[in-house]
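Supplementary Text 2. Reproducibility record for the structural model of the 376-residue chain.

All settings were left at their defaults, and a single model was retained for analysis rather than an ensemble. We include the record here because the model underlies the residue-level annotations in Supplementary Table 4.
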Amino acid sequence: MEKPELLQNTLNLDELEEMARSRLPVQNFDYFAGGAGDEITLAANRQSLRNLRLRPRMLVDTSNLDTSIEILGEKLPSPVMIAPMAFQKLAHERGELAMAEAAAEHGALMVVSTLATCSLEEVMAETAGTSKWFQLYVYKDRGITRDLVFRAKEAGYKAIVVTVDSPVLGKRERDMRNNFQLPHGIEIKNLLEHGLKDFPATRGESGLAAYIAGLYDISLNWKDIEWIAGLTDLPVLVKGVLRGDDTHIAIESGVRGIAVSNHGGRQLDTAIASIDALPEVVAAVEGASAGAGKIAVIFDGGIRRGTDVLKALALGAHAVLLGRPLLWGLTIDGARGASRVLAIIDFELRNAMTLAGAENIEAITPDLIAGSGRVQ
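Retained model, structure tokens:
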């Protein structure tokens, strides 16, 4: 385990990845780090954020800097939320429980995956009273899907996030080479009662790909989103949208939020970088009828710096999802490691806001981005 003092001396999130690589089995690291195909979209998520340039304002009083937001009725101290990530016990023996502990320390909203290695009830009980949303995959057996929605509501989750970009798994060649499987003792806890806790035995392919091919519903369409929205009074969001026309259909289907995401470059390779898709989705949301109510836009894809958060917010996102760096922190030092990741990104966001002349989240406007075409 990494010595705490060395972790505290970590200056940025990229440093954590190499530290985690040396501590994880190859199949575990590759599962977390890898993307689909040639990993072009995986790289583009980062590069497109880097390519954006900022236009800072001068002489703005930021002595009372405020990073707090309100989203779908949730008041949060920061726009940085924890992305849904599967199989967190591959990183640390306490898995999602340790991640929830870190989230609670910072008041960060955690989105818990269907494919968690701790049950959704266990994760909620670990830090009862803190904000959590539940990420949902849709199974061929609609009874499983209905059960997960009802359990999330009963446990106290505040929203359902339906992942819509995974009717099949992307061609993840790292996992295929490793014949990726869950190690003995690690199970998909949310699906134990349905007999779906393990992957099928495979040779020369990813066990996860075989699992999804057998159980996820490739016929999933917008009518199913309407059905899910009708199951619960919780807000329903869709994760994986990259187009304005899909955004319009989502809103018409009853969703309350859009997560602009390409699944971390893990699904359709050469898909557009999430940050490049964000303006079109934001424009579609802004053009939606007033009767749709306030639609949340959440950005997911390549966040590594506070300036990345600033750029996503300036282009219209209300919050962002942070993923892989939290897994690296979890690997290195459990809840303390994940907490360190949140502390670094919080410091960098506050630093970037101060230098850009944005005293609060509302002041992070499109004119901060060079060439945005939306100068105030």
